[in-house]
Write a structure and sequence with these properties.
single chain; about 500 residues; alpha/beta; 2 domains; six-stranded mixed β-sheet; binds adenosine-5'-triphosphate; binds magnesium ion
């Protein structure tokens, strides 16, 4: 057998005395898809950052094609063909697909950038790997799935032999994730070695050749995907402690709390009529970038509707007013935690208490009270970090998500919009978040849920509406529908 493309031996990493990775070995062969699994905070992203040289390990060695690579810099890692698509998107939103693909390597003649040449080679690069996207479109106009594809294409075009993908499909629905899977298969057939981090265990079993599981910074096992089951993986990840919940029992919902009457934005929502009752969870599905993505702005008051009105308990909410939306008890938990939901540079405690403090209207911060309140929230939401009160940016992705929920859920809203509430969280945390959502419903909150995870919608929602082309095209109680039907409707297929 030929030497592995990439080989790690005895890699360890601590942050300020706390151990994030302990003595990790990993081999990646050409053409192999090697999945990296583990609960939130297990050390996956840290390992990814060590391989891509954005972090330096405390101990351990890395060899490339059998040769010791020595200490790596990000530049040197790229030169030897190690490329990474991080958990956080890193494209420049205002630039075109073509510019993003060739950033840093724009072809020039003298002082002039060759735009025709840029477009031509970007198109060729995408064609080569079977991705069909308009290269002149600004990246911010692309749906999430296409942005991931562009990011992967950029790395491959930069000459990646080793490609590391950290949760590339975390916020994508089944149909969109399939495009990413297809690209991963294409690349592996061409001999690219792929490290694939994901919390979607079914996906991993379908896609990976081998699987390494991390737990609390240690490598628990490395197994071939063939012959392994989801429950085997869960046991290795948790050490046998996960409790994956059942569908919540149906409850009789109360009076209408949220009433959207003919809401339109003039572009992606035409005329939306939707009522949510006390204690009811309504799942909102639809193709990415369609009307369901407009709900956040409208409900939170950051966007003013062109037509229609929003009523809470029969009282109109002032359009386009964040303050009035909060006053009526509307709480919106964004799906984009780092850009919109949290302040990454502030500590966990400060972030957790941000909403409660803002709503209390008190001008001064009482630090002891703040830390006491935060301690309770961390405990309840099981926010795990190895440092005492680190800035949110130093938390693992799943723990950031828990901080976001801990910030909003205890604020006693009447109406709550949850966008992708379990984006990036592990199986155990997911079950906990589901219980929290059920608790809110049991307390009489009217809930709207958007999620690319159809099983999550089936588990939590009482009713599902599908928004397509800016209007509701289908509505079902959960008892009336099936997994297959929801997948089809979300992806934009025809509902039977
Ligand atoms: N820059 C940092 N400073 C301090 N601690 C850090 C830093 N980066 C990561 N950690 C800690 O290291 C541990 C491992 O984090 P890591 O991001 O690797 O987890 P993960 O397996 O990727 O989790 P997730 O599934 O939630 O993304 C966590 O406890 C995290 O808080
Ligand atoms: Mg991570």
């Amino acid at each position: 057998m030929t030497a592995p493309l990439l080989s790690l031996r005895g890699v360890s990493k601590s942050f300020g005395g706390a151990r994030a990775l302990i003595d990790i070995d990993l081999d990646l062969h050409a053409g192999e898809v090697h999945a990296l699994l583990g609960m939130n905070g297990a050390g996956k992203s840290t390992l990814v950052e060590i391989i891509s040289a954005s972090l330096t390990p405390d101990t351990g060695t890395l060899s490339v094609a059998g040769e010791p690579a020595g200490p790596l810099t990000p530049r040197r890692a790229r030169q030897i063909g190690i490329t990474t698509v991080h958990q956080r998107r890193s494209l420049v939103p205002s630039l075109s697909v073509a510019e993003n693909l060739l950033l840093g390597r724009l072809p020039r003649r003298g002082p002039w950038v060759r735009w025709d040449e840029i477009r031509r080679s970007a198109r060729a690069a995408l064609d080569d790997i079977g991705v069909r996207i308009d290269v002149t479109a600004p990246v911010r106009t692309l749906p999430a799935a296409q942005q991931v594809l562009v990011e992967i294409a950029r790395e491959v075009h930069a000459g990646g032999r080793v490609l590391i993908l950290d949760e590339p499909t975390a916020a994508l629905g089944g149909g969109d994730a399939a495009h990413v899977h297809e690209l991963v298969r294409t690349l592996s057939q061409r001999g690219v070695g792929i490290v694939y981090v994901s919390h979607h265990l079914d996906e991993v079993l379908a896609l990976a050749d081998s699987i390494t599981v991390l737990r609390d910074g240690r490598r628990v096992t490395t197994v071939p995907a063939e012959g392994t089951t989801v429950s085997d993986l869960v046991t290795s990840m948790t050490g046998g402690k996960a409790d994956i919940g059942q569908r919540r029992p149906a409850v009789e919902p109360g009076p209408v709390v949220l009433d959207l009457v003919g809401i339109g934005t003039g572009d992606r929502l035409r005329e939306l009529n939707l009522q949510v009752r006390a204690g009811e969870v309504v799942g909102v599905l639809g193709p990415a970038g369609d009307g369901q993505s407009q709900l956040f702005g409208l409900l939170s008051g950051t966007r003013r509707p062109r037509t229609g009105s929003i009523l809470v308990d029969g009282r109109p909410v002032r359009p386009g007013s964040v303050r009035d939306a909060l006053r009526h008890g509307i709480r919106c938990v964004t799906g984009d935690r780092l850009a919109l939901g949290l302040i990454p540079e502030l500590s966990v405690d400060e972030n957790v208490t941000l909403a409660t403090r803002a709503l209390s209207g008190r001008p001064f911060v009482r630090w002891p009270a703040l830390h006491a309140m935060a301690a309770e929230a961390r405990d309840r939401y099981r926010v795990v970090s190895i440092a005492a009160d680190p800035p949110v940016r130093a938390l693992s992705g799943g723990n950031q998500q828990k901080v976001l929920l801990a910030k909003w859920l205890p604020t006693g809203g009447r109406v709550c919009l949850l966008e992708e509430p379990t984006n990036g969280v592990d199986v155990a945390a997911k079950a906990e978040i589901h219980e929290l959502v059920e608790g809110l419903a049991a307390d009489g909150t009217a809930l709207l849920l958007t999620s690319s995870d159809v099983d999550e919608v089936l588990r939590l929602a009482d009713r599902v509406v599908v928004i397509r082309g800016g209007a509701v095209v289908a509505e079902r109680t959960v008892a009336q529908t099936s997994r297959d039907e929801l997948v089809t409707m979300t992806a934009g297929g025809t509902a039977a």
